[in-house]
Write a structure and sequence with these properties.
The chain crosses the membrane at residues 902-922. The chain is 23% helix and 11% strand. By secondary structure, it is α+β, with helices and mostly antiparallel strands.
């Protein structure tokens, strides 16, 4: 062990989350055992390759020489690939002991990175002006990533380096190599597709075909198991905020960040965005301030942080609770979130049988006893549990049917019992195919006993069996389960094999734990256990992913270090591993490099570790590396970086430049001097000019070469064809073709006639005249094809909008009176105002004649009704009044009847004679 030389071991790449520091020396000793062993192994392999080893040739003469030649070439190609792989492994291989010692050497410079880490954190958090407790978790998360090697890809269990292309989970913010997560996602979806293809549809015990379930493919995060869709597989390497693709590695920024503001929307959504620079992990709470009142709204407005959303005052709520009697009395809260009333009072149950003291919000309660109130029938009682309101009618008095439901009847009373009808039951049995063969019966039907041919679940056997039983054969399923290792072995399996219930038990990549998941295909999930790593003194402990103990740096310990400083500053620092870190204080001595009056503000450089390599080193093989020499030197002062004001070449601004480079230069802004055209300005970037204070064109400015950029009148879309000039432009002479208002004809007009210049300066009369001229341009001069609301065609010339004067339509329409006897033709506008005509004397005479006819019919109907009633009365007296009337009365009735009959015959004769006399007197004279 003492003769091992670690200087020839390939240097490990620097920690991905540490700021760049100067390289570290390796202990110088004897020869390295690993490279020598690897070199010997490779030499043996090379000798074997050079010796021309061949595969044993078959002695059968029937094998052609072409097949032997192809086999030999394939064997040589595979052998060369193995040799190249062995060389590569020998160069990159480092044992765990070497890695451990190298980590100890790396620990010597952890203190040197403290200042750089603080600078990076300060740049990221400089725009955050919130409470320190809100940003504390984010700052601690970033500091742990910068100072330890916790950034580990859980798929390949390798450190995520600064230059690696990564992907970060949006739920747990864990980093993975981009290639690893792509391979993980594709493998996961491939396994699910293979398992879905192996599944098959099956027939259930009813003979129905059950298809296999639909394919639902997604992939999960290896750590938090967040589900992602196939289209969410990362295809590109992006920074944490997603603004920049393929971000470059900057030594003074957080790795894999773009250095721009994050600008992600904060959660919960408040309308503000994150002000930190592009960073990993969650965004801190919103630091903005808002003016809001308290939760109950009774206090004045107060300024609070947006992340807090609301605040609570000390006043008591005075709102009435749901009971309407008591007040809330709780401390400030939202108006709709008053707690239930906790006051107690004596309340009766829903049925009123019992009473007890309950809370006000529980005033409606059930006692749990049966109501037992009599129904209106008086024979039965209510069997419901305590309820409110009336019990309703007796359920036995409603229409009922026999048990099979074929005969429905309404019982004479609710006490009458409805029996069976005697017919066959014929209810559908549980099988859904056959009917019950028994007579109408009480209770549920039995099992179906029909013998039907059935196919077993696996489909290999068919035999007659009772309908309510499932057909199962004795065959065992030989299919492989989802794990691909064990057989199903289920009796009469229908094709839907159960998942494997055995534990995987494979050793995980960490080498300490075993997979506790059920037996599965493909790689196991990464180990989710944690291991602890301690500092040198053992006072600080951090947790890292299981299996990463040796590759993780020792945690930062805050206990003081007792080693004295090597420079002129009192360098006090915390506990660390290896040598003390270099001094991080400013030098403070006069700068003899720039020879200015500013003191040196660079980091102390009295004792700096400098690593040099031998330029004349000639490696024996690819596994041999040059020797490195480490020396502690005092470096010269760097150039002075004190900011001094310097004006740019064009005189636009005065910026602060480092003292060592304080000379005028271009600021990059456009020159902006007004050119001779009087419209444009010089587009060149800031350049040297004769007089910096002038604002007009200089001899070094670029002359104007653009076209006219004056805004055209509103509505005109045609550019000016002249060169750059002062306003105004010539009128636009482009001819425009458009459809008229009615859409039947195309009209043409000049652009400047329709969109003249100076629209903003025109008066109301000029604008009205312009609108009339535009309407005349778009009108074809023909008759409008639109119809009025009344249905007649418009009489105006082609016009925009609705047709004018729709109420003045003069078309002839027919109008009639209410009785329909009188009909005339009038104009449409008159018909709308007076839709009906007044009836004349002839209409009234016709109406009177109809009314007289109706009265005559009603009079005759009354006379017939009286005659019928008189006959019924006489018939009634003849049947029920057996007592003979007196003679005197009978004679009187007969005389009255004779007198009435005589009047009936004489009256019409007299009327006819009078009518004949009047006719002769009036018409014959």
């Amino acid at each position: 062990m003492a003769s091992r030389n670690r200087s020839k071991v390939a240097p490990k790449e620097q920690n991905a989350w540490n700021v760049p520091v100067q390289p570290k020396p390796d202990p110088i000793g004897g020869k390295s055992r690993k490279p020598a062993t690897s070199k010997g192994a490779i030499t043996t392999t090379s000798e074997t390759c050079q010796s021309g080893s061949k595969i044993p040739l078959p002695t059968n003469s029937s094998v052609s020489s072409i097949m032997l030649k192809k086999s030999q070439e394939k064997f040589n190609q595979v052998q060369r690939q193995h040799v190249e792989t062995a060389k590569k492994y020998a160069v990159e291989y480092v044992s765990s002991e070497e890695e451990e010692e190298q980590n100890e050497a790396n620990g010597e410079e952890t203190g040197a990175n403290d200042a750089a880490t603080k600078n990076i954190l300060g740049e990221v958090l400089k725009n955050y002006h919130g409470i320190e407790t809100d940003v504390g978790k984010t700052e601690e998360y970033l500091q742990n990533l910068l100072e330890s090697r916790n950034a580990v890809c859980l798929i390949c269990i390798e450190t995520v380096k600064r230059a690696d292309r990564i992907w970060s989970c949006t739920a747990c913010y864990t980093f993975f190599h981009l290639m690893c997560i792509q391979r993980w996602a594709n493998d996961s979806m491939s396994m699910k597709r293979i398992n879905h293809e192996q599944q098959e549809g099956y027939y259930n015990n009813r003979g129905e075909y059950i298809p296999k379930p639909a394919l639902n493919v997604h992939w999960d995060c290896p750590k938090c198991r967040r589900e992602y869709e196939p289209e969410n597989i990362p295809r590109h390497y992006e920074c944490f905020c997603g603004k920049e693709r393929e971000p470059s590695a900057h030594p003074w920024l957080i790795p894999h960040s773009c250095g721009e503001p994050c600008a992600k929307k904060l959660a919960p959504a408040c309308g503000h965005t994150c002000r930190l620079l592009c960073h990993p992990g969650p965004c801190p709470p919103c630091p903005q301030t808002v003016n809001v009142s308290c939760r109950c709204g009774s206090s004045p407005v107060k300024t609070i942080r947006c992340a807090q959303k609301t605040w609570t005052c000390t006043k008591k709520c005075k709102r009435k609770l749901i009971c309407g009697i008591h007040e809330c009395g709780a401390q400030c809260h939202d108006p709709s979130q008053c707690p239930p009333c906790q006051s107690r009072s004596k309340q009766a149950c829903l049925c009123g049988a019992q009473s007890k003291e309950v809370n006000c919000h529980e005033s409606r309660w059930q006692c749990g006893t049966v109501c037992n109130k009599p129904f209106p029938c008086g024979l039965h009682r209510c069997e419901q549990i305590c309820h409110a309101g009336p019990c309703g009618p007796c359920p036995l008095g409603l229409p009922r049917s026999c048990p099979c439901g074929k005969s429905e009847t309404r019982a004479a009373s609710c006490s009458e019992r409805i029996g069976t009808c005697g017919d066959t039951c014929e209810k559908v049995l549980a099988c859904g195919k056959h009917l019950c063969p028994e007579r109408c019966h009480q209770g549920a039907c039995g099992d179906c006993l029909e013998m039907v041919p059935k196919v077993c679940r696996c489909g290999s056997t068919k035999k007659p069996i009772v309908c309510h039983r499932e057909a199962i054969c004795e065959g065992r399923c030989k299919r492989m389960r989802s794990c691909g290792k064990h057989q199903c072995n289920r009796k009469c399996c229908e094709g839907q094999c159960q998942p494997c219930d055995k534990v995987c038990g494979k050793t995980l990549p960490c080498g300490k734990h075993k997979c506790s998941s059920l037996c599965h295909q493909g790689p196991c999930y990464p180990c989710n256990q944690k291991s602890s790593v301690k500092c040198r003194c053992g006072g600080t402990v951090v947790e890292v992913a299981c299996g990463r103990e040796r590759k993780a740096n020792a945690p930062k310990c805050k206990l003081p270090c007792r080693t004295a400083s090597k420079c002129h500053h009192p360098n006090t620092h915390s506990c660390h591993t290896g040598e003390c870190p270099p001094c991080t204080l400013p030098c403070g001595e006069p700068n003899d490099t720039t020879n200015c009056e500013h003191p040196c503000r660079a980091k102390c450089h009295d004792a700096v570790r400098v690593v040099t390599r031998d330029k004349n080193f000639k490696p024996v093989g690819p596994w041999d590396v040059p020797r490195e020499t480490v020396e502690v030197k005092t470096l010269p002062h760097p150039p002075c970086n004190v900011k001094v004001p310097v004006m740019c070449l064009g005189g636009h601004e005065t910026a602060d430049w480092p003292c060592s480079n304080s000379k005028p230069s271009s600021c990059g802004r456009p020159c902006g001097r007004l050119l001779k055209c009087g419209v444009h300005r010089c587009p060149l970037p800031c350049h040297k000019v004769t007089h910096r204070a002038t604002t007009t064109q200089d001899s070094r400015c670029e002359p104007c070469s653009t076209g006219c950029t004056i805004a055209r009148p509103e509505g005109c879309i045609h550019p000016c064809t002249l060169r750059c000039h002062k306003p105004p432009c010539d009128p636009c002479l482009v001819s425009i073709k458009a459809h008229c208002y009615c859409g039947l004809t195309q009209v043409f007009y000049k652009c400047h006639e329709f969109y003249p210049a100076g629209m903003e300066e025109k008066t109301q009369e000029e604008l009205a005249e312009l609108n009339r001229r535009r309407e005349s341009f778009l009108s074809c001069g023909q008759k409008c094809i639109k119809n009025f609301p009344c249905g007649h065609r418009c009489t105006s010339i082609c016009h925009p909008g609705r047709c004018p004067n729709p109420d003045q339509c003069s078309k002839k329409v027919k109008a009639s009176c209410k009785c329909g006897h009188r009909k005339v033709e009038v104009s449409c506008k008159v018909a709308r105002t007076t839709p009906t005509l007044d009836c004349d004397q002839q209409c009234e005479a016709i109406l009177a004649q109809k009314q007289e006819e109706q009265e005559r019919k009603e009079r005759e109907a009354r006379e017939q009704e009286e005659l019928r009633n008189q006959r019924e009365l006489q018939e009634y007296e003849r049947k029920f009044n057996k007592r003979k009337p007196r003679e005197r009365k009978r004679h009187q009735v007969q005389e009255e009847e004779r007198g009435r009959h005589w009047a009936v015959y004489v009256a019409p004769v007299v009327a006819v004679l009078i009518g004949v006399g009047l006719y002769y007197c009036l018409f014959l004279q």
